Amino acid sequence: MKKTVSFALNGESIEIEIEPHLTLLQVLREKLELTGTKEGCGMGECGACTVLLDGKTINSCIFPAVEAEGKSITTIEGVIDVQGNLHPIQKAFVEYGAIQCGFCTPGMVLSAKALLDEKPKPTEEEIRNGIAGNLCRCTGYLQIIQAIKAASGQG
Ligand code: FES
Ligand code: FES
Q1: Which of the listed residues 23, 35, 46 should we mutate to test ligand 1's pocket, taking the one with most ligand atoms within 8 A of CB?
Q2: Alpha carbon distances (Å) from 17 to 2, 20, 30, 31, 128
Q3: Residue whose CA is closest, atom 3 of ligand 2?
Q4: In angstroms, what is the span from residue 43 Cα to ligand 1's centroid?
């Protein structure tokens, strides 16, 4: 039996009928066609599926969609501004070469956003901790850390 779930998605209220066993990642990608959120391991280990729930990072691949009820969810589609301009963190990722294959990027950007929203001038260690749940196979992390530093005005 389907269940109705209501939550805010990228600032807009939505209501959707879903099968209760679906993960938030499945609902975002398959029902709502928000494919910016990536599926990597599917087991809560790589961070590719990171989204923000009330401003904090979660792995949407292991998060039951029904638990989004009444919450506010931000996906990578929700970080651009109303004119469609990239978020400053996204711009810094481009500028510092922090994107190679790009698979980890949406999750990295959202983890960086959660960090900077809470701590606008993080130390390098805090940046490393902030993205500790996001695996990147390509960059060696250095450019990502530089980009987050730059986005915090410490470049
Ligand atoms: S796909 Fe969710 S943590 Fe890897
Ligand atoms: S850029 Fe390829 S996994 Fe990070």
Answers
A1: 46
A2: 6, 9, 13, 10, 38
A3: 136
A4: 5
pLDDT value of position 69: 98
Please tell me the number of the ligand nearest to residue 97's CA: 2
Classify each residue of 59-90 as buried b or exposed e, where b means 16 or more C-beta atoms within 10 Å of its C-beta.
bbbebbbbebeebbbbbbbbbeeeeeeebbbb
Q: Are 40 and 106 in contact (CB under 8 A)?
A: no
Query: pLDDT by residue (tens digit) across 71-117?
Result: 999 999 999 999 999 999 999 999 999 999 999 999 999 999 999 99
- Please name the residues in contact with 91: beta carbons below 8 A apart, sequence gap of 6 or more: 151
Question: Is any atom of ligand 1 closer than 6 Å to the C-beta of 58?
Answer: no
Q: 62: CA distance to ligand 1 center in Å? A: 8
Q: Which among 155, 109, 152 is positioned nearest to 134, based on CA atoms?
A: 109
What CA–CA distance (Å, rounded) separates 95 from 11? Answer: 27
Task: Please state the pTM of the whole predicted model.
Answer: 0.97
Residue found under tokens 């992390």: 141
